[in-house]
Design goal:
Number of strands: 13
Radius of gyration: 19 Å
Structural class: alpha/beta
Strand content: 15-25%
Low-confidence stretches: 11-44, 347-368
Distance between the termini: 30 Å
Number of helices: 10
Mean pLDDT: 84
Length: 368
């Protein structure tokens, strides 16, 4: 039974000066060589295979990513990181989810950073939402899932709500962390000026001009799209949530987030049907490792209850070890080294290479 408008508190401390990326430990020594191939590779969670994939975007370009495929039929969860972050930043959620019985699909959106087509200068939220839906549709066709769940972060979280609204019947759960619910207000807080209002007033008017948006040089066409494609305010977010019929929402958020205010989050999700809010106490927008671990335990518990009919408390979720991170990092380096050249018609090599493994399913079920 889905709990309507449930709010949970996760008492995990994270101070502002500790605010680092959630999976920083998994991004060390990621250098790759161009002549490595995109062969499937084994990672830690009891025979989980890492497999490359490529999907043709519905309006051109190629989306590329990696499947963490469990050996048995299992629910599918699509992951993508926040704006300007490569898919390796979602290794921590992928490890938690595969260790707890899920198949995971990670990908880099087009017009971002990473291995998919396009340059981040051409980024738009509309394109990001389309990529989420296209990858999810590919997953239903190739991984035997009727519907998929998704887990996204920050601005990508906002795009996931549009994907859920525009592709009915495709998604079961839209889970987010630090979801941006008012694009205009968050951009203003980060940048210190309201570029959306400047576009409306005609102070900015060249869509090909480059502007500084969230630490990247992005064409102002992204700002024009925020207005013309109805992304700007809370009202548009509420409309997308209402339109996403049959989708359950889970949002984890920090009550000290300087970019997404708690009252805005509650205004969107607090009154939505089939919505659960989990408060990460003292957390800011970017989670430190300890807070990210708490968030992943909450995510696993929620997904296990809804998608696997196997209730588990957050404290009893399987927690990957440091050796598991190391093994998955090595496998990920092997699999992504040649991924940028993979096309939707390419058939990857099927003989897996073997990475050092640890049986995650026999890890001690503790939060330490």
């Amino acid at each position: 039974m889905t709990t309507v408008n449930q709010t949970t508190t996760a008492n995990q401390t994270a101070t502002a000066n500790q605010a680092t990326t959630a999976n920083q430990a998994t991004t060390v020594n990621q250098a790759t060589t161009a002549n490595q191939t995109t062969t499937p590779s084994r990672t830690a969670a009891t025979g989980v295979a890492l497999e490359p994939f490529a999907v043709a975007g519905h309006d051109g370009g190629v989306v590329r990513g990696v499947v963490h495929r469990r050996p048995e039929p299992s629910p599918v969860v699509v992951l993508t990181a926040g704006l300007g972050m490569p898919m390796r930043r979602m290794l921590l959620p992928a490890l938690f989810l595969t260790a707890n019985g899920f198949t995971v699909v990670r990908f880099d959106p087009r017009n971002s950073v990473g291995v998919s087509d396009g340059d981040i200068a051409d980024f738009t939220l509309t394109g990001l939402a389309a990529d989420l839906a296209d990858v999810a549709e590919w997953a239903t066709g190739h991984l035997g899932a009727d519907r998929v769940a998704m887990f996204t972060a920050s601005l990508t979280g906002r795009a996931s709500l549009r994907a859920a609204a525009t592709r009915p019947g495709l998604f079961s759960i839209a889970a987010t962390v630090a979801c941006v619910v008012s694009v205009e207000q968050t951009l203003t807080r980060v940048k210190g000026e309201d570029v959306v209002a400047q576009w409306r007033a005609g102070e900015l008017d060249d869509p090909e001009a480059l502007g500084d948006l969230l630490d990247y040089r992005i064409k102002l066409n992204a700002v024009r799209s925020i207005i013309e494609d109805d992304w700007a305010g809370l009202d548009s977010t509420r409309r997308d949530v209402r339109r996403a019929t049959g989708v359950e929402f889970l949002n984890l958020y920090g009550d000290r987030d300087p970019w997404v205010f708690e009252e805005e989050t509650r205004e969107v999700f607090g009154t939505a049907a089939n919505s659960t809010l989990i408060v990460l106490r003292d957390a800011v927008h970017e989670l430190n490792f300890a807070t990210a671990k708490t968030a992943m335990q909450q995510l696993v518990a929620h997904f296990s209850t809804r998608l696997r009919d196997a209730p588990v408390s957050p404290e009893d979720a399987v927690v990957p070890s440091f050796d598991d991170f190391t093994a998955c990092n090595k496998a990920d380096r092997l699999i992504t080294a040649g991924l940028a050249s993979l096309s939707p018609t390419t058939t990857p090599t099927t003989d897996p290479t073997t990475a050092p493994t640890t049986d995650l399913l026999h890890e001690t079920r503790t939060g330490s």
